Amino acid sequence: MPLGGNSSKAPVVSGGGCIDSLPDGVLEHMLGFVEAREAVRTCVLARRWRYLWMSATGLRIVYTTYEGKVDYLTAMRKYRQFVDCLLDCRGQAPLETCEISFEGLCDDDDRPCLNHWIRHITCQVQIFRLSNICREDFELDDLPLVSRHLTRLELDGMELSNSFFDFSSCPSLEHLEIATCFLWEANMIMSESIKRLSITNCFFGFRTHVNVPNLVSLRLDSHLYRAPVIERMPALQEAYVRVGRENPNSADCDDEDCYSCHGVLCGDNKKCVLLECLSESENMALISESKTFIFGRDLNKCPIFSKLKTLLLNESWCVAPEFSALTCILKNTPVLGKLTLQLFSKGPKHKVEMIGRFNSMERSAEISEHLKTIEIKCEVVDEEVNEILKFLCTLNICFIFK
Questions:
Q1: Using one digit for the tens of pLDDT, what is the confidence trace for 275-321?
Q2: CA-CA distances (angstroms) from residue 378 to 110, 230, 329, 392?
Q3: CDD domains this protein is in (predicted)?
Q4: Distance between CA atoms of 213 and 98, rounded to whole angstroms?
Q5: Measuring CA to CA, which of 245, 311, 330, 395 is 20 to 30 A from 340?
Q6: Which residue, 125, 137, 129, is CA-closest to 182?
Q7: At what angle do helices 72-90 and 110-122 cross, to 10 degrees?
Q8: What is the pTM of this model?
């Protein structure tokens, strides 16, 4: 397929236009924001533009079979030929960003082609995004990524296997985002270099171990089926963990030899699944959509949060009448300076905000002496909120409206 494409669809640029006064480097950067086919079509604009697309600093390979094409298989086959030729023409040209997004892959030849593209591009690119490549019986190769240049990887809507998450051959990778992915066969996510990790709305088949010892920032938002087990992270500075409505029996595996469940959660030496790994964090938010299995088990061996200075909790940590979860957290946060309770609210905005003040005559021994600010945010002061306020009053904390 000729990479020049259909010249009738190419944009028209006047010879004396302002864009012609820009240096090649700027034009190559601009072409990186254009879908690959459109970027290649600029070769017909003028002699100067003939080869600029080959050195574009970004590459966007975006294809959907829902483009009004009658013969999806033929259209997909032509697009595969186009991308193969495109990558061959680019050769080893430096590449800052790349996005590959496919919807509705529908040919048995898609998988080897796609895996070839990913391996080829990964060797060169710094920021890589893969999305919308998930369909039944389609997986990426179960092989580690290899790249000296990759610094940021974003995965969205994919089914991924175990070896893919071995990032030991990506020494520059510092930022990893995984969203709405199926990790049924992923036993381990492993990297010495990753500093920022975000896992959102993902499906875990095992209790996947996350071994990222140099992590600085963690976001674990609403996992499904089983929570991952995260190993110790001594450099952690901030963490946001929101646990969905996990099945209370999801950790109970029938196989007694299954380390994924029993080696972590059972016996006298059982360890925390989530709280232990967060114990080095300085700023943390713990959100639970219900009184979940994982946090309930973790609190039986609650670690000391020796560095924690700011903490946000929602109403699931404030269950009357014992308030055992909240009490446990307060006892194990010796340097806590700010506590925020976000109660019975689905969004970041609240109609009611209150500030807590300690009774000057007496301070509860259960609370950090560094705790200066206590906030309560809610939609309305109802009976449930009043119960929480009464409990906090027993700790010699009174509240005023903000």
A1: 888 999 999 999 887 655 567 777 888 899 999 999 999 998 998 88
A2: 50, 31, 21, 16
A3: F-box_AtFBL13-like
A4: 27
A5: 245
A6: 137
A7: 20
A8: 0.84
